[in-house]
Write a structure and sequence with these properties.
This protein is of the alpha+beta class. It has helices at 9-18, 20-31, 90-107, 125-131, 173-188, 205-212, 218-221, 241-245, and strands at residues 35-39, 43-45, 58-65, 68-75, 116-122, 134-147, 152-161, 230-233, 263-267, 270-280, 283-291. The protein has two domains: 6-186 and 208-224, 3-Layer(aba) Sandwich (Chemotaxis protein chec), CATH 3.40.1550; 228-234 and 257-294, Surface presentation of antigens (SPOA). Helices cover 26% and strands 27% of the residues. Helix 2 (20-31) packs antiparallel against helix 3. The radius of gyration is 26 Å and the shape is elongated. The two termini are 51 Å apart.
Length: 308
């Protein structure tokens, strides 16, 4: 893997610009607000010149690449972070982890795909950046997010840091309050109390698919950015070659398929879904109605020594 250094600023900038819309969509889904992203010009950042607004709590996304790492910093002062991010339940934690993976794919060149991801709520963003081992002359790209009400907030993409594992999830006041409450309940009871985990909300099919990406091995995650042909089939019909040769301008082919039947969507000649035709502006679109599960294959099991 190439070395993660400030010298790749132009490559990271190109990746950020290419993935800006995808990154904004990923943050919009996770944070529950509609966002637009504008990528700023690269610069440098040092421990003794950290912006004053980083002496505050916020979200830190750690993207680990080899022994080094990249940090995505989003302060709470931007007003973009929901209350639940400080003490996420299992569903919320899954959302944040999926967000970290998506940001790594959107902001970094293919040669620098992260090997692991981590999201934390830091009580002081500046302290977290220092603890991660910010190198001299580290690179930084500002990412300006704007909401539908024209309010704006700026996040930072910073690299490299030499000790990304040193960043630990700092307990927020909410988390500390829950810890103290649990301690008081334990002292008031003569019997040990069970460790009750927060109940997670049922996940939608889309959420399960997003969360499933976290289980992919590092060398497989880059495949998620491979472009494949997506085809929507109107209808199919077999004809003799002689009839095909008779086809000319103005000839009408009649199919057995009714006009209200669902259309098939194929990826690399493999049917994965069906849907209905819709109009998107002045273009053609497909509204997915159902997903086609993979074909099951069964192999008969015979006793040892049995002759076929």
């Amino acid at each position: 893997m190439p070395e993660l250094s400030p010298n790749i600023a132009s490559e990271v900038l190109a990746a950020c610009q290419a993935g800006a819309s995808e990154a904004a969509a990923a943050l919009s889904r996770t944070l529950g607000i509609e966002l637009k992203l504008t990528v700023g010009e690269p610069g440098t950042i040092a421990e003794n010149t950290l912006p004053e607004e980083l002496n505050a709590p916020g979200l830190v996304v750690v993207l680990k690449i080899g022994a080094n790492g990249v940090l995505f910093i989003l302060p709470e002062s931007t007003g973009l972070l929901p209350d639940w991010y400080a003490t996420p339940d299992p569903t919320g934690q899954s959302k944040l982890t999926t967000l970290a993976q998506e940001l790594g794919m959107c902001f970094l060149p293919d040669a620098y795909m992260p090997e692991s991801y981590k999201t934390i709520r830091a009580n002081n963003l500046a302290d977290s950046i220092r603890s991660a081992g910010l190198v001299d002359g580290a690179a930084m790209i500002p990412l300006a997010f704007s909401k539908s009400d024209d309010k704006q907030g700026t996040a930072l993409l910073i690299w490299p840091v030499t000790n990304p594992d040193a960043i630990n999830a700092a307990e927020s006041p909410k988390a500390e309050g829950k810890k103290q409450e649990a301690s008081l309940q334990s002292e008031a009871s003569s019997k040990p109390q069970p460790n009750v985990q927060p109940a997670s909300q049922p996940k939608s099919e889309s959420s399960r698919r997003q969360a499933g990406k976290r289980e992919f091995p590092p060398y497989t995650r880059s495949l998620l950015r491979v472009r494949v042909p997506v085809t929507v089939t109107l209808a199919e019909k077999k004809q003799k070659l002689g009839r095909i040769l008779e086809i000319g301008p103005g000839h009408i082919l009649q199919f057995d398929k009714a006009c209200e039947e669902a259309l098939d969507m194929q990826v690399s000649n493999c049917k994965i879904a069906s849907g209905e035709a819709v109009k998107v502006g002045d273009k053609f679109g497909l509204r997915i109605v159902s997903i086609v599960p993979p074909e099951e294959r069964f192999v008969p099991v015979r006793p040892a020594g049995e002759v076929r």
